[in-house]
Amino acid sequence: MDIQRINPEQRWSDATVFRGIVHFVEVPARVDGDMADQTRQILAQAEHTLALAGSNKARLLMATIYVTDLTLVPAFNEIWDAWLAPGTAPARACIKVELNKPGMLVEIAFVAAAA
Amino acid sequence: MDIQRINPEQRWSDATVFRGIVHFVEVPARVDGDMADQTRQILAQAEHTLALAGSNKARLLMATIYVTDLTLVPAFNEIWDAWLAPGTAPARACIKVELNKPGMLVEIAFVAAAA
Amino acid sequence: MDIQRINPEQRWSDATVFRGIVHFVEVPARVDGDMADQTRQILAQAEHTLALAGSNKARLLMATIYVTDLTLVPAFNEIWDAWLAPGTAPARACIKVELNKPGMLVEIAFVAAAA
User: Fold this and answer.
1) Residue C61 covered by a domain
2) Does a structural domain hold residue A31?
3) Mean pLDDT, rounded, for A52-78
4) How far is B21 from chain A (nearest CA, A)?
5) What is the DSSP string of A62-113?
6) Does C73 touch chain A if contact means CB atoms closer than 8 Å?
7) Is B80 at the interface with chain A, CB within 8 A?
8) How far C6 CA sits from the closest chain B CA (Å)?
9) Phi and psi torsions of A38, nearest 5°
10) Chain A contact for B18, CB < 8 A?
């Protein structure tokens, strides 16, 4: 079994899968909304990407959450906590950086188990 | 063999283990001390987490070190260098960001080999 | 098969390889040049490290690109896009942080498939 790539573009692939490990990054498609809106977009997109990779949100291993404003982390966490089924949370880091699109408040890099 | 989670909370797990790969993140439990103190806390906690995951500090693969002040990296490195047995250092990145708790000077995301 | 380390120093290894997964981080050796120059250095070094790990640039799984100035991302992308063969791009995150050496504009953490 070799490398599977989901929607490979020249600059990045939406996800890569190798030996049962999925790497993928989600950014909000629309950045005009608030943290709750952008978080909901990212998590919905993550479910879609996970499905394409033969995985699902109960199989996350690690999440690196990049935010641009630490005061918005509670708004992020409210959506995040409700999204995860009990007992399925990945390891996670949450740090403040600057992101590559004006208005973007959050970006998440995930590692998941495919199967 | 499927996903093992160490201390799964609703928001995160202390570690996940899948196909022999451990993902975990450590932050200092107490943030009133200086960089040396916070680094010692993190590395002691890392040893504890690694033991729970059936691994140890000689089996680290990657460390992403988030610091809030680059002038404190030498203080971090002094503890880090002494902590690692010769020939066992992981790949590592060390970057300055802002962290999600006032007073927290360092946070580390690790990837390790379980067995 | 256990952990292979490429050029293990006391503080870090240039790469680690375990169960076919390579973790490595590249920084520019010389930081007197512009973004294009520093990017070319990093990507050339990445090819060298990948070769030592029994991999190559068509087998990247994930890239975390740390930059110190978001206005230089287009200059980075121009080199990056030309470097990757079509259909081989990894998942990627690109964030602005501060780096641990004055003049350093970019650092990349990679995950790759060894074999």
Assistant:
1) yes
2) yes
3) 98
4) 10
5) EEEEEES-GGGHHHHHHHHHHHSPTT-PPEEEEEE-EESSTT--EEEEEEEE
6) yes
7) no
8) 9
9) -65, -35
10) yes
Contact status, residue C87 vs residue A16, Cβ threshold 8 Å:
no
**Residue B101 contacts residue B73 (beta carbons within 8 Å):** no
* A12 domain-assigned: no
| Contact at CB, A90 and B23, closer than 8 angstroms | yes
Which residues, in sequence order, are bridge partners of residue A38? none
Residue C1: pLDDT band (50, 70, 90) is: low
**Chain A contact for C18, CB < 8 A?**
no
Instruction: Answer whether residue C85 is part of any domain.
Output: yes
- CA B63 – CA B92 distance, rounded (Å): 5
Q: What is the pLDDT of residue B18?
A: 97
Interface test mutation site (partner A, options C35, C95, C99, max chain A beta carbons within 10 A): C95
Contact between C90 and A16 using a beta-carbon 8 Å cutoff: yes
In this prediction, residue A115 has a pLDDT band, given cuts at 50, 70 and 90, of confident
What is the pLDDT averaged over residues C73-90?
98
Contact: A12, C90; criterion CB under 8 Å = yes
Overall average pLDDT of the C93-109 stretch: 97
- Token pair 């973007």: residue: A104
Q: Stretch C37-52: mean pLDDT, rounded?
A: 98
- Indicate which CATH number applies to the domain containing C18: 3.30.1330.40
Residues, chain C, total? 115
User: Which residue in the set A11, A18, A98 is minimally distant from C61, CB to CB?
Assistant: A18
Which pLDDT score is estimated for C115? 79
- As for the ipTM of the complex, it is 0.97
pLDDT above 90 for B72 = yes
Q: How many domains does chain C have?
A: 1
> Is the Cβ pair C89, A14 closer than 8 Å?
no
**Interval B92-103 mean pLDDT:** 97
What domain range is C35 assigned to?
Answer: 13-113
Q: pTM for the whole thing? A: 0.98
Burial class (CB in 10 A: 0-12, 13-18, 19+), A46: buried
**B3 neighbourhood in chain A, CB within 8 Å:** 59, 61, 113
